[in-house]
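hiii so um. not sure if this is the right channel but i have a protein structure encoded as tokens and i wanna go backwards to a sequence. like what aa goes where. can anyone help
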């Protein structure tokens, strides 16, 4: 049986500062009917990410469409196929797509990707940000055996996996950054970080030099700004710097301030340091690779999936707000 109506979360207004609950509205609408070549999906889980704060602005530099006022938001989701006339999908198939923030989604058959049955013991694990973490470690920072690795934004959905992956690629010392002592302690005790520098607990460069007395060989940068400056100051000759995120600007007070970083280009040249901007849309082949790697790691206990899980589509605005406020460690998901 398919419900006659379902709920979706719409953008009610553009933010002028941090995410607040009044920027959203929850609306009950009819469940759409699929036509030929369309797939009706009952969403079971969705994820939120810091980039969604950026997409709430009318214009952004992010190569993704901004959210529209009065329209449902969009983002990664998984769910079960209800109907898929004229497609290769069948009712009950588990699929991933980009129309989260609603209980039912109507997507084109080419936008609903069938997931391997039984691969993940918890289907929510398909919503990890592991593909981005793997991309930055393997192809961006090119982590090698013996490296000292610095991961900025280590307590987020990406960073909480990047440190684990760096260890798998042979890093001998993994250092993270975060915004609180509580998260720093959890990163060391639960996720295997060797040391953590804390934003606001003193000059970041001084903290990083103490944590990495022999310098850093590879940097996975989620943040930019002063954390990238500190990483460059402590980077060894030949260090590889992967620019993966820009949390300093995405989570700034007004959501728009650029995280500008002054570079001493002569120093970078003389030390042979590589900076590489890298984005997942150029490395989509990593997604199935990551799913297999993650499933095997979860079963073997060599990888963990730190995340918070809220329940009900009405909790999606809260999930994004709490993520941007730094309330959680790891990914933030909503079970619908």
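sure thing!! here u go:
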């Amino acid at each position: 049986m398919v419900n006659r109506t379902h709920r979706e979360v719409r953008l009610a207004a553009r933010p002028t500062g941090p995410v607040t609950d009044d920027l959203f509205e929850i609306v009950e609408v009819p469940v759409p009917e699929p036509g030929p070549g369309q797939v009706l999906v009952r969403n079971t889980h969705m994820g939120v990410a810091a980039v969604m704060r950026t997409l709430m602005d009318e214009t952004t530099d992010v190569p993704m469409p901004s959210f529209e006022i009065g329209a449902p938001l969009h983002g990664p989701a998984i769910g079960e196929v209800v109907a898929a006339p004229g497609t290769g999908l069948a009712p009950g198939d588990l699929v991933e797509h980009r129309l989260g923030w609603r209980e039912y989604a109507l997507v084109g058959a080419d936008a609903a990707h069938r997931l391997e049955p039984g691969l993940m013991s918890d289907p929510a694990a398909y919503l990890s940000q592991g593909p981005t973490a793997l991309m930055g470690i393997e192809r961006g920072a090119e982590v090698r055996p013996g490296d000292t690795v610095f991961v900025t934004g280590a307590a987020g959905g990406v960073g909480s996996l990047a440190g684990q992956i760096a260890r798998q690629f042979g890093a001998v010392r993994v250092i993270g950054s975060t915004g609180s002592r509580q998260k720093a302690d959890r990163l060391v005790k639960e996720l295997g970080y060797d040391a953590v520098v804390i934003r606001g607990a003193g000059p970041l460069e001084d903290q990083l030099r103490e944590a990495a007395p022999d310098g850093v060989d590879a940097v996975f940068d989620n943040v930019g700004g002063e954390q990238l400056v500190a990483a460059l100051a402590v980077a060894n000759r030949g260090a590889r710097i992967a620019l993966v995120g820009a949390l300093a600007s995405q989570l700034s007070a007004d959501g728009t301030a650029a995280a500008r970083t002054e570079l001493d280009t002569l120093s970078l040249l003389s030390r042979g340091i590589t900076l590489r901007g890298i984005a997942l849309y150029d490395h989509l082949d990593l997604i199935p690779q990551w799913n297999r790697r993650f499933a095997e790691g979860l079963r073997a206990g060599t990888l963990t999936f730190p995340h918070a899980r809220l329940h009900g589509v009405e909790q999606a605005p809260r999930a994004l707000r709490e993520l941007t406020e730094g309330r959680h460690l790891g990914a933030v998901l909503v079970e619908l």
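oh and The mean pLDDT is 94.
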